[in-house]
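Regression test case RT-17, inverse folding.

Input:
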C-alpha cells in the first residue's frame, strides 16, 4: 500500500496542470498515473501550431505546449508512473492500478483528480452501409499514422465530419500530397473553430459540404469509394441526392466522447449532455475528494481552456486535502434558449472566488445576447456578434453576486437572438 495526498489519473495537459497547481497550493505528495508510455497526451501527435495563444500568449505546436508543462514537472518532486493503467477507485478513494514494472498497485490517497481525456467516436456508432474494408479510420488515428508513425493512410480522401481534428487532417493530408476531395458535415453548420475552417479548408480549396453525409462505403479489401447524400431538416438522407465519390480513404471526425468508464465504475453521476461528471465550481464531483477536469469533464475546443479548468481542479483538490474547502448548500446551473449545457453544474454560494460558467450553444446565433438570471432576476448580460456550436463560450459571475444567491436557487443561462 502506497500513500499519497493526491493521485492524478492522466498525464496529458489536464493532469499535468492540475498536479502543478496542487503543488503550488501546498500539497506535498503527488503522483501522476499515465497509461501511455510518455506524458503529454494527445498533444504529442498534434504537430500543427495554434496552441497556447491564450495561456502563453504565443503560438506553439502541441508537443511544444506539452513540453512546457513536462519541464515544469521535472523541476518538482511530483512522482510520475507512465505505462500504468488505473483499474478502480474504491469508496474510500483508494486507487488500484497496474503496470509491468510494479505489478498491482494500491494507493491510499486523500484526493483524486480525474484527467483521462476523451476518445473519438468510432465507425460502429454510425449507420453506414458497407463492408469492413481497410481505409476507413478516425481522423485521430490517421493523425497518429502520419505524425508519429510516418505512414500515409491513403491518397484520395473523403472526410466525414467537420470537427477540428477532421479539419486539421484535411490540411495535413493535403500537405503530405494526398487529394482531399471534400469534407462532409451532417449539420447545417461546421463543428470546428472558424479559424480552422479558414486555414485548413478555404486556404487549400477543399470544399465543405454542409447538410451532407456518407450513406455507404464501397470496396472489399480496400475502400474504393463512398456514396454521399444530402440530408433534410430531420438529418435523414434525401432520396435521389446520392452521389458516388471514388476514394481510397474515409476519415471520420464525428465527435469526441469523454473517457469516463472509470468514472462510471466509481459510481459518479454523469451529465447527460457532456457525458462527464457533474461538478461544482472547484470541479469536485458528487463524491467528496474526487475531482474531474479537462476533456474527461467536457470536450474543449482549446487546450488553453483545458489548462485553466485543470488548475481550478488542482486548487480545489488542495483545499480539500488541507480541510479548507467549504461544504455548504449550492445553487444549480441550467441552460435554456439554445444553451445545451453548463459547467459547473452547481456553485457553492459561499465560494471564495469568481466563477466562470462554460457552455456551448446548439445552433448558430448572430447578433445575440447572453442572459444570466436567477429566480427571474437578471444577474448579467452581454452581447455577442456570433455564437456557434463548435466554440466554447463562458460568462463570469462575480463572487459578490454569488454570495447573495439563496441556497437551492437555479442560475439559468440563455441566448436571446
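Golden output:
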Amino acid at each position: 500500500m502506497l500513500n499519497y495526498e493526491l493521485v492524478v489519473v492522466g498525464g496529458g495537459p489536464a493532469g499535468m496542470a492540475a498536479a502543478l497547481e496542487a503543488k503550488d497550493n501546498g500539497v506535498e505528495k503527488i503522483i501522476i498515473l499515465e497509461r501511455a508510455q510518455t506524458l503529454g497526451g494527445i498533444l504529442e501527435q498534434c504537430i500543427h501550431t495554434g496552441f497556447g495563444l491564450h495561456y502563453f500568449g504565443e503560438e506553439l505546436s502541441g508537443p511544444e505546449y506539452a513540453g512546457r508543462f513536462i519541464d515544469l514537472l521535472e523541476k518538482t518532486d511530483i512522482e510520475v508512473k507512465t505505462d500504468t493503467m488505473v483499474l478502480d477507485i474504491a469508496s474510500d478513494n483508494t486507487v488500484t492500478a497496474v503496470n509491468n514494472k510494479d505489478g498491482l498497485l494500491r494507493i491510499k490517497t486523500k484526493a483524486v483528480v480525474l484527467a483521462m481525456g476523451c476518445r473519438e467516436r468510432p465507425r460502429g456508432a454510425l449507420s453506414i452501409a458497407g463492408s469492413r474494408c481497410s481505409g476507413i479510420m478516425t481522423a485521430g488515428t490517421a493523425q497518429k499514422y502520419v505524425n508519429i508513425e510516418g505512414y500515409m493512410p491513403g491518397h484520395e480522401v473523403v472526410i466525414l465530419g467537420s470537427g477540428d481534428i477532421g479539419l486539421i487532417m484535411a490540411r495535413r493530408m493535403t500537405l503530405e500530397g494526398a487529394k482531399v476531395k471534400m469534407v462532409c458535415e451532417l449539420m447545417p453548420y461546421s463543428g470546428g473553430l472558424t479559424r480552422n475552417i479558414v486555414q485548413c479548408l478555404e486556404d487549400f480549396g477543399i470544399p465543405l459540404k454542409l447538410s451532407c453525409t456518407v450513406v455507404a462505403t464501397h470496396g472489399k479489401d480496400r475502400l474504393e469509394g463512398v456514396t454521399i447524400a444530402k440530408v433534410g431538416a430531420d438529418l435523414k438522407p434525401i432520396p435521389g441526392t446520392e452521389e458516388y465519390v471514388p476514394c481510397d480513404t474515409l476519415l471520420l471526425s464525428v465527435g469526441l466522447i469523454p473517457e469516463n468508464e472509470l468514472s462510471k465504475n466509481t459510481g459518479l453521476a454523469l451529465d447527460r449532455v457532456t457525458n462527464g461528471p457533474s461538478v461544482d465550481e472547484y470541479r469536485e464531483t458528487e463524491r467528496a475528494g474526487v475531482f474531474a477536469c479537462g476533456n474527461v469533464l467536457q470536450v474543449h475546443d482549446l487546450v488553453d481552456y483545458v489548462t485553466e479548468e485543470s488548475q481550478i481542479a488542482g486548487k480545489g483538490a488542495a483545499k480539500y486535502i488541507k480541510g479548507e474547502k467549504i461544504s455548504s448548500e449550492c445553487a444549480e446551473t441550467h441552460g435554456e434558449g439554445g444553451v445545451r449545457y453548463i459547467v459547473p453544474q452547481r456553485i457553492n454560494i459561499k465560494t471564495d472566488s469568481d466563477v466562470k460558467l462554460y457552455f456551448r450553444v446548439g445552433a448558430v446565433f448572430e447578433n445575440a445576447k447572453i442572459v444570466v438570471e436567477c429566480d427571474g432576476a437578471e444577474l448579467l448580460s452581454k452581447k455577442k456578434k456570433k455564437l456557434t456550436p463548435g466554440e466554447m463560450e463562458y460568462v463570469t459571475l462575480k463572487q459578490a453576486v454569488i454570495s447573495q444567491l439563496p441556497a437551492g436557487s437555479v442560475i439559468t443561462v440563455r441566448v436571446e437572438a
